């Protein structure tokens, strides 16, 4: 077997140096990826050249992009038999990999990827395979079933990927893996990734890989013992509000806040500045001279907070940095280790805080495994704690100003005003403090108390649907009209209660309603899981005929909003949009588009907008719950 290819590029060179397809580079720019991870930089050039690759890397190092990006750059867009097959040990990983392919193919029109795994009906898989897909991602058992049924034709396969091969060995799939490899054309390209290389995996590589390039990525597994690591479970509160509360209650000297994208760094810095914090952003778009000025301001104490991307913060060493806050969880464990290494330098103590949403739980566990250190859950500072700190700072500012002196001119003005208007000096001081405070409230208001079952009160608008009662023979006749003496029944639509937006929230329209059989719990559960919100923070929900209106916290992050558009509830995509304030007539609904209400798997896998195979039509709360990687 060969040594690592000399064609690999330094990770710092950026994705543009990897000669990926323009459409692929475009989506990487859209999401703000600035540079490849080590395994991506080491394997992508070889895979683009058609070389087989044997990669040893842990979960969380960026393996999926390492094989998905070159496959998408070389795939032919004719629709027919699968050109790429990815084998994964679990259904969760199959779904995750399929979603990654779909995300990276955003700017490749017509691309189709199909996940196939046990526990899912064969019908939708067969329909998609007959229609034609470019990439199949599946578990060994279900792939073997399709091969035995002759419903999966691998005769035109060009790319074969074995992901987490050692896990497939541990789960007893190694014979199935051999059978699948034997069913593939001999000229196909193979990439095998495994965290460890036990003898059976080595034998597979020797039998089925042709002169492979070997890549070994040892993820950083040590974090300084003098860095306290904590995570906050993002639920119910906007991340920006939570971060602001932490910044106010957590004593720190200087802090780096890590965000994934260039745009996010700039937006966060602006919002922190608006809250009176000395913050600035650095990212790949900032000139070197400006970067140096910002870092010098941080060193001099003129700045307290730096909002940065991974690339921009490389090599940063400032003694004042006592805290690192991961506003966005990193995509790989190595990035996390590098991030928190910006604090706790030269033996000093440091603090690292990580924000984790429910769908990122797997990455948190991967970080703990890679660093071999548990990360403790932190409790968000209470409103009372934040207010105590604000009062403490207010008093300290008075002490500091008195200590500086030079107040004689102001004292004379206060005495003069006191005599002219007969107003006590304490009231004048309070007025001046109010002027100095400006529009920003001195104290946080305690969170409004609301019942956890709020949605029951506002969601069950049963007057939009005729109620039914069981007759003696089991049939359900429609309820009789209110005026029994009136022989002419009123078939006009009943009036629905107007939707009033709750304070501090914004109303959105989602394209699922009564006629789809949806219940409040279906919607509340899906949005709570996908957006990382506790149900108590989801406001009024009004279910109409073929759509619903829902109040969500104002200022939802753009990426959450975009994700919610594609969430499936009762076999419908939410297609969430900001409500224009107009209500459709109670009895009128816009015509359905053909195929709109088919379950996602009946439309050829993930080609139509990242459906969620979990909970198809189940009508259970949390129908849009994301897959969990094991």
TrEMBL record:
The keyword Mitochondrion does not apply. Residues 447-492, 499-508, 579-590 have a biased composition (Basic and acidic residues). It is found in: Cytoplasm. Keywords: ATP-binding, Cytoplasm, Helicase, Hydrolase, Nucleotide-binding, RNA-binding, Stress response. Residues 442-508, 579-630 are annotated as: Disordered. One of its GO terms (biological process) is RNA catabolic process. The keyword Repeat does not apply. Residues 13-41 form the DEAD-box RNA helicase Q domain. It catalyses: ATP + H2O = ADP + phosphate + H(+). Its EC number is 3.6.4.13. A motif (Q motif) lies at residues 13-41. GO terms for molecular function: ATP binding; ATP hydrolysis activity; RNA helicase activity; RNA strand annealing activity. One of its GO terms (cellular component) is ribosome. Belongs to the DEAD box helicase family. DeaD/CsdA subfamily. DEAD-box RNA helicase involved in various cellular processes at low temperature, including ribosome biogenesis, mRNA degradation and translation initiation. This is ATP-dependent RNA helicase DeaD. It comes from Dyella dinghuensis. The gene is deaD.
